[in-house]
Fold these 2 entries.
Entry 1:
Amino acid sequence: MSVSVSVPTILRPVTKGEKTVSAEGTTLAEVITDLDSRYSGLGDRLVKNGALHRFVNIYVNDEDVRFTGGLETAVTEGDEVTILPAVAGGSSTGGSSTGGSSR
Amino acid sequence: MLRIPADMVAAIVAHARADHPDEACGIIAGPAGSDRPTRLVPMTNAERSPTFYRFDSGEQLRLYKQLDAADEEVVVVYHSHTATEAYPSRTDISYAGEPQAHYVLVSTREPDSDEFRSFRIIDGAVDEEDVEIIPAAPDVAPASTSDVRAESDLVQS
């Protein structure tokens, strides 16, 4: 299954400046593995400890994959995958309030 | 250096004051490559928190598609700190994902005075920059900017 992947500005140095790249896979995880095989280092920017990195949002056909199964979200031929930087921050130095503080 | 029209500074401060004590956030778009902030877009803080902000992910996607279609980019990312100084926190630095953007911070901790400062945040390094406030452009109407916030959010507030 071939899908198109839209790459944000901050990751374009990894994709040799490409704004849109194509990739193969039946799940988002497979798509990312395929991308990483050609654009080395991209996987580490998107996935951490087996889960979607908190610094990025990934959408499959405009649906945030955090609500559709994360990395296991299925993709089919012609789907559009969009990667955006999560725009977030704040005065707390303890990380995301949704990130499960250890204290 | 950030050059920004006075009416946009006023609008950002007003947004920050309105959402206090929660953090307020948004962007100013401009023509791609121009480094010129021309269109203010307030965003929903999906966290609705006094210590954290995050753009609502659906709203953000709609915004970025609009920008792409109009050949615009994010020139300014702004947010407020409501109990601390207008300086990027470690969290702000870790998330900073728009290398071309000016990161504007506003502090609303003092009821009678506003701190408005701008930074570049690239690869974890913070550089404060000067802010030059310029007269509002007569041909730009920032008050009538498009609003990508979901209707349900607007009704709730």
Note: The radius of gyration of chain B is 15 Å.
Entry 2:
Amino acid sequence: MYLPQSRGPYSGWVRRRMLGMDAGRAPAAPEPDTMLDDPDVQLALWMLYEVHFQGFEEAEEGIEWDLGLLAFRQVLEVPFETVLRDVGAPLRRPRATARIVDGLRDLIAQAPDPGLARFLQRKANADQFVDFLKQRSVYHLKEADAHSFVLPRVRGGVKVALAEVQYDEYGAGRVDRLHQDLFAKALIACGLDGQYGRYVDSADAATLASSNALSLFCLHRRHRGAALGHLAAFESTSSIPCRRISQGAERLELPGEVFDYFDEHVEADAVHEQIAVTDLCGALVVHEPELATDVLLGAEVCLQLGARADQALLDRWAGETGPRWEVA
Amino acid sequence: MTLEPGPRVTACEDGPLLVRGADQWPGPDGEPVRIDRPVVAVCRCLRSQRLPWCDGTHKFGASSPKD
């Protein structure tokens, strides 16, 4: 993909540095309180993570390990991690002592839901549906990739279970079933561009923050518990919304590729949910009990940041900031 | 090398059966439904809208799945 356009001092600094230009002094650390809503800061962090995935056409491949960029990533990650740890912390604490599988299921049962899937199912117009696809392309065109970084950091049955989920995400041996490509096909069928990273320039702060939280968890070995908790929460809150969204695509008579993408996830994610909660998170905590709190942290962050991203889209379509769902 | 014996079935607590290595499973009308996934989740609560497969609906409601 090409480097996104600058949206302010943070993403501007990262962009110049990645282009090999004299970027000058890096901006100071952002305030934790506002950074989830700051598109400039979230885009900067998204770019800093992206060099570990597909990277950027105009940048040298070696910038993945550029010490200036890595140092700046840390400057952004420290307050970002602080914010994420605050997200829903009071809800999470008492559950850490319970059985992890029950703790996760409790969290998931109480997941905030602003109603985006229902809106897409019943009310959205085609423009809104397309807008949704563009925002979600930031994640879905690299769907499952972040969790592949976790594979070498876990052992035994946990590794087997993660590989089983990833195998399915990556098409289960069939190139025409690779989930990220199914999403690209859906975009193209709607007359959009299926190229990786194409719509990052129009991604809102909440969408970028949601993607960044996952990258943070998956790129740091110490966050492996949170990475797996995130996966469990994501998969456990996917089947039913995907069914609703696929029905919305049918209602609007969107191309069949859109229906296919979401329909595929109804059955696939019902399987992944069971594997992720029990065989991944449950087994991880048996081997490393001290990771229980991190597993719940990852799940909570997934649910809360996912809800914020959903709400941001609904707000935009409402043309106003209606009753907002707040981070706990 | 030993061959894997038939499908492997695992019951999930308060959830579906996970079935690995099967190429078909009985549908709601008793007719076999073809499987083209390495693992499928078979509904046990019978509230799924895509029987015989789980669609996550069991999470709504407290009753335990029945065999």
Note: The interface with chain B takes residues 101, 105, 108-109, 164, 167-168, 172, 236, 238-240, 243, 266-271, 273-275, 278 of chain A (CB under 8 Å).
